[in-house]
Amino acid sequence: MKDRPHFDPAHWPLAIASRSAVDETHLVMGDGVSLHRICLRGVPVGDPLAALIPCDALLDARLEALAGLERWLRGARRGAQLFGPTAYQARRLHLLLAILDLRRGRDVTSHMVAQRLVYPRLSIGQGASWKSSPERRRTQRLIHEAEALAAGGYRALLAGGAGRQKQRCDSAAPPRSRFRATTPHRALPRLFGSRRWKEHPMTAAHPPRYLRTPDAARRVGLSPRTLEKHRCYGTGPAYRKLGGRVVYAIDELDAWVELGRRSSTSDPGVGTVHPARRGLA
């Protein structure tokens, strides 16, 4: 095949799958790295092949795919796969596709999605406890990502760059050679780990009710290590776990400071401290 001026489909490797119609033949062939999907339309035997490529927003990806097919048929060294998801990305894509399949049925709630797919081994609450739980918020985000992926976001996965390009899901938008617009709900950036968050305008008016260990330690004037000792010894303020993380309520921190403060033994004028020792609960 290397010495032939053109490639005869009769000498191509055996296709993984094929389907013939009246005037065209569809082939799926694999080179061990990626799959090549080809549609042959009225190809005379012995004539060179011509590629028909739409000049749309996926032009760059189509040209790269055509170049990879040409290298493979010529016997040259195969190139890298256009989109090779990592193990984490593959699991997440499978989860999003499973969510789409499940929601094709009627009356499928977010609680059912969480129970069957997102948290199959976790006993999640119901009613008010479910509505205020972090599991419900994460499930809703996954549902939004899956819907955005099905609405057109999947095209960004085909555009190369491991899916990190962004695309507008609106079909009426003018095509571009590279996707720069965002999809609804910022699904694709979250899909591949980008953490670009914008502060909500109401954040300043409504301060957080809970603090994690480092922020809580600064509020009570202790080091995070000392506050962690208090938690382990049972001498610290009340805490709870939200989403698997230890958090402290601000009002309970302030109440603990008022009730449990003791003068420092080394320098009473510096401030107040809480000795983190066993048996002082």
Automatic annotation (TrEMBL):
Residues annotated as domain T6SS Transcription factor RovC-like DNA binding: 52-158
Every Helix-turn-helix domain range: 210-258
Pfam family, one: HTH_17
SUPFAM superfamilies, A to Z: Putative DNA-binding domain
Protein name: Uncharacterized conserved protein
Source organism per UniProt: Sphingopyxis indica
Lineage, uppermost ranks: Bacteria, Pseudomonadati, Pseudomonadota, Alphaproteobacteria, Sphingomonadales
